[in-house]
Amino acid sequence: MAEHEKTNVDFDQPYEQNIIGLRGIIYFGVGLFLLIVVTFGLMWVLQYQVLQPQAEEADRQNQEPLALSEEEKLPPEPRLQSAPGFGVEDPNGGRINLELTAPQSEYWELEKQWKKLWEEGRKDEKTGTVIALPIEEAKERLLKDSSVKAKTGEEAKKTLENSKKLVSASSAGRTASDTIR
Predict the structure, then answer these.
(1) Domain membership flag for residue 113
(2) CB-based burial of residue 133 (10 Å sphere; 0-12 exposed, 13-18 middle, 19+ buried)?
(3) DSSP states of 94-155
(4) 0.85 surpassed by pTM
(5) Which of 13, 95, 141, 153 has a 20 to 30 Å separation from 171 between CA atoms?
(6) pLDDT (tens digit, 9 = 90+) per residue, 90-119?
(7) Which domain holds residue 115?
(8) Is-contact 98 106, C-beta < 8 A?
(9) Total structural domains in the chain?
(10) Is 87 domain-assigned?
């Protein structure tokens, strides 16, 4: 029993005694409260002593520090449509406004103009000369024209040989002596 008395351990209690340090909790709470009050005070000073005068000065100069200038508001180069509004030039001398229509209406209008050109052709306004024909009419005129004839016989062979002597971009640098063998 002499050993029991030296260790100061009470073996009669089945658990460890829970001691709460109330003084430490109170110090922590007071410190936290003071930190919050000081932080609030600093934010108040920052707002009313620093930021508010800067905002009033910017208002007096009628400038917003982060506002974009007129050039900064534009999209980056290249600007594909710098003119305002959407529309198509009418071949009859007007403009078709397409601002409040469906997005594909520009294509529809151009398609109408192309079909009209395809079917009717186009004449030069100043001279009245035909500058574009419908495909079928152009084929008929070409076949009726007697100046265009297919070459046959010796004349065709001569034309073929002369065409082989031409140096073109597709000849890959070969000369006439390389191609005729």
Answers:
(1) yes
(2) middle
(3) EEEE-TTS-TTHHHHHHHHHHHHHHHH-EE-TTT--EEE--HHHHHHHHHH-TT-----THH
(4) no
(5) 153
(6) 777 778 777 777 777 778 888 888 888 877
(7) 105-145
(8) yes
(9) 1
(10) no
